[in-house]
Amino acid sequence: MKRENQCINEMIRRMPLEQKIGALLTLGFCGTTPRQHIYDAILKYHCGGLRLTPSSRLFGSYVDPKTGKNVVNVVDTKGYKAGVNPPAVTPSEYRAILAELQKAAQSRPLGLPLHFSFDQEGGTSADYRFGGVNIFPKPMGLRATGDPKLAYEAAKAVSQQSLAVGFNWMHSPVLDVNCEPNNPEIYTRAYSDDAEEIAAYAEQSCRGFKEAGMIATGKHFPGRGASAQDAHFSIPQIDADWDTLWNRELLPYRRLIEKGLLPSIMIAHSIFPALDPDNVATVSPKILQGLLREKMGFEGVITTDSMTMGGIALRYGVANACAMALESGADLVLMKAENSLVGETVDAIRSFVESGRISMEALDDKVYRVLNLKYEYGMFHAKAEQSAVPETYIHDTRIQALSRLVAKKSVLIQRDADGVFPLDKQEKILVAEQMTQSPNNIHWHPGMLFRYCMESGANVDYLETDFDYTQEDKDALEANLQQYDTVVITSYYIRGKNGNAAYLEELLRNHADKTFILVTNTPYPLSIPKNAHNILLTLATSPDNIKCAAKVLYGDMQPEGQYPVRYRMTFED
């Protein structure tokens, strides 16, 4: 490869091996109070960046929702106790924390800046969710607006809000073609099940990210929308043939690479027999080098997905898999753990370099790609967005209005078999609502659907449940149903949770004399029982979408969302 940036070349020339290895590591910072191991990641292991998860104090081990078993242990036995929320911070306070970590990075030889990676796909898939930040729906909600320009505007707004805090490397957009309705991992994280539509909306998202100065990351290459398995717990296998992969899964990537809109691509922990029958894509030279680099001409940064996810970790071992990924063509490894796995990963990569499995030339190429991308996006210099007070963007009336508009144009009525919409505000109705993954502050908290129903002047009672129903929740539902003819009940789905669709199917069948209105965030059987008659599709559980849902329920707003996928669920009448 050509290494034309002489400033970066000089840095690489002066870097010892341990700094080069560190530059290729994105390690994890969980919570809002950096502990010693975070400073060790920066100063001892010279990490290139941190993956930020401010909503939790600890990285949780992946727990298979079907078996309840831990898949990979990433938690240190010393220190924090699980189940406690991290200290609450304002956006400005969190920015000060990130600035302190950057200051530590600047004290290193060469003062190489940290990148701060995060998820901000929309809805509950949002690492920046505190302080009243405007949360947009997941990609399928953007598609439901029917207007790709809104995807551009939303991406730009998300970037402006995030860059002001210090986030600078986004693990979006999701380019998976969700052609499997029972996909437990991708679902509404995809724009659609139509590759052409995904390419159109993702292009606009990437233009918004780029214009704002946010590094975008297309994921999960080559595409894992055609699987009914979750890579967090096992290795999905995508059995599509070459022609299908090229014209479906790879089409969004081809379009965006051709237009220079993908500075970074994240690799899927999945097996694609048509491409490489023997190796997971993450550690496949055929896929990373042969397909992505050579055939598709991608010259940007290749990053792994989290290397502590169950499928990849159980098959190869975390540390070994990180080294194998770099050997196979990746430039960055994402390794979120708070225990000995960090040191083991560094040792494994060093062993691969010293044994010649990763040549010094290949190592330098990787470091160059990562540092040069940071250079191009201004990370070596202070940016205007980082001098602005983060709350300025949160309270920007233009961004707030855009959030409301996207919500209004994404909510839709999926089914109205009983002709119940709109509901009568005078009728006494029960709202049975799950507790979702909200930050539980005044801006976004449990009971928001109930709150907004009351604001619409509705005559409603409230029953709160866990996200996955306990037996106590089921008993409470049964006991309360007798008092109401009409029940508004949420049935949300979130990755890593079981959801309640199977139980709700039984509940609706046993109480056929009642009118149930299902409020759900997916158009799929993941969240919808096959005997549901009345369905309001929100495509997000975030505040503006839920507020719009309440207004649609009671006729205070006409739903404007377009059904976002070709898939149509078959119902029992």
Per the principal axes of the C-alpha atoms, what is the gross shape?
globular
- Topology, number of strands: 16
The tally of helices reads: 20
Average pLDDT over all residues: 94
Tell me the span between the first and last alpha carbons. 61 Å
Helical content band:
25-40%
Radius of gyration: 24 Å
Overall structural class, as computed from helix and strand content, comes to: alpha/beta
The largest sheet is:
8 strands, parallel
The share of residues in extended strands comes to: 5-15%
In terms of per-residue confidence, which ranges show pLDDT below 50 for 5 or more consecutive residues? none
> Order of strands side by side in the largest beta sheet?
6-3-2-1-10-9-8-7
How are the secondary structure elements laid out?
Elements: H1 6-14, H2 17-23, E1 25-30, H3 36-43, E2 49-53, H4 91-106, E3 115-118, E4 120-122, E5 125-126, H5 139-144, H6 148-163, E6 169-170, H7 195-212, E7 217-221, H8 242-249, H9 251-258, E8 264-267, H10 285-295, E9 301-306, H11 310-316, H12 318-328, E10 332-335, H13 341-354, H14 360-376, H15 390-394, H16 397-410, E11 412-416, E12 429-434, H17 448-455, E13 460-465, H18 471-481, E14 486-491, H19 501-510, E15 515-520, E16 534-537, H20 543-553
